[in-house]
Design brief:
Number of domains: 2
GO molecular function, one term: metal ion binding
Oligomer: single chain
Strand order of the largest sheet: 1-8-5-4-2-3
Family: Belongs to the iron-containing alcohol dehydrogenase family.
Number of strands: 8
CATH class of the largest domain: Mainly Alpha
Protein name: Maleylacetate reductase
Pfam families: ADH_Fe_C, Fe-ADH
Structural class: alpha/beta
InterPro entries: ADH_Fe/GldA, ADH_Fe_C, Alcohol_dehydrogenase_Fe, MAR
Radius of gyration: 20 Å
CATH topology of the largest domain: Dehydroquinate synthase-like, alpha domain
């Protein structure tokens, strides 16, 4: 076994149907008295529900969160935080709400009690992200990691189908890249493989029966594992590509992850054999067809499988490839601009990754 470093991060997780009712107790545990509830405009009804649950501990609702966390939105939120003398943050929703809360915490050190309603997993990480002048920046700081995360599967029942499956694929992406991270370790690898298994089995089941709390719980469990992986080890090419495409071309976050994941695995497969074995076990497929099998999963879920479908322009592919090779993340395979440009071309058209040895040869051609 190779040498490794495992560093556990403090986390308090409350999991189960109806557990949103614990939010006031959790705020009291951190001595909060002036909480700001944060959501997107589309989740304002849920934000009002949280406000009712915490009663006098709520000083306001800020339902202005948007994807990719633009810096101008953060500045406006900070003005509200200062004006209301906020002492804690309660984001409810997906990555947009939690991302805004993290950006506020980065500037103020305010504690967060997070209530996720999607499967993206950012609530389990110390990672923050901001978009300024079309460029997305990310970093790590433990101050932005929520003090408590409340997972209530009941809150995901009315999640639109597209959001359900694309945010689930986003969580699978965290697990996949955790398996070939630079600082990979056996504990996180176990969590990653289990997360892929749970999400792979539950996402199709949710489409078949959206109101089945058992499969919703299984998906949320997989999301929790994916978020834990994301917060514990580094990410690689897939996340770099998604940050470029989302931040620079304003592509929808979860859909971009869904489209790009099979192609990132295709690019890396020959250089990450141990990770591929784990993914194949979780998916119950042949090792040489892991990328193609994930493409098939995405297609079967009825979500976009190409960059063209989610708003990318073919004329921007050259620039995107240039941006992707600047300040690259660690990756098991070297990042070559020509090869990345070819990868983006396949992703733009939505061509299924080829099986076996052709994975490497096709990408390099």
């Amino acid at each position: 076994m190779k040498s490794f470093l495992y560093e556990a991060q403090a986390a308090r997780v409350i999991f189960g149907p109806g557990e949103i009712k614990q939010v006031q107790t959790e705020l009291e545990k951190i001595s909060a008295k002036r909480a700001l509830v944060i959501s997107t405009p589309g989740q304002e009804e849920l934000a009002n529900k949280v406000s009712d649950l915490i009663g006098d501990l709520c000083v306001g609702i800020h339902a202005k969160a948007v994807q990719h966390v633009p810096t101008e939105k953060v500045e406006k939120a900070l003005e509200i935080v200062r004006a209301l003398h906020v002492d804690s943050l309660v984001p409810i929703g997906g990555g947009s709400s939690i991302g805004l809360a993290k950006a506020i915490a980065l500037n103020t050190s305010l504690p967060i009690v997070a209530i996720p309603t999607t499967y993206a997993g950012s609530e389990m990480t110390p990672i923050w992200g901001l978009t300024e002048n079309g460029i997305k920046k990310t970093g790590k700081d433990l101050v932005v990691k929520p003090k408590t995360v409340i997972y209530d599967p009941n809150l995901t029942v009315n999640l639109p189908t597209l959001v359900t499956v694309t945010s689930g694929m986003n969580a699978i992406a965290h697990c996949v890249e955790g398996l070939y991270a630079e600082n990979v370790n056996p504990i996180i690898s176990l969590l990653a493989e289990e997360g892929i298994r749970a999400l792979h089995s539950s996402l199709p089941a949710i489409l078949a029966d959206p109101y089945n709390i058992e499969v919703r719980s299984e998906a949320l469990y997989g999301c929790w594992l994916g978020g834990t992986v994301l917060g514990s080890v580094g990410m690689a090419l897939h996340h770099k590509l998604c940050h470029v495409l989302g931040g620079s071309y304003n592509l929808p976050h979860a859909e971009t992850h869904s489209v790009m994941l099979p192609y990132a695995i295709w690019y890396n497969a020959a250089h990450a054999s141990k990770a591929i074995k784990s993914i194949a076990r979780a998916l119950r497929v042949e090792e040489e067809d892991v990328a193609g099998s994930l493409f098939d999963l995405t297609e079967s879920l009825g979500v976009p499988t190409s960059l063209a479908e989610i708003g990318m322009k073919e004329s921007d592919l050259d620039q995107a490839a240039e941006l992707a090779v600047k300040n690259p993340y660690y990756n098991p395979r070297s990042i070559e601009q020509r090869a990345i440009r070819k990868l983006l071309e396949y992703a733009f058209t939505g061509k299924r990754p080829l099986k076996g040895i052709e994975i490497q040869g096709e990408i390099n051609s």
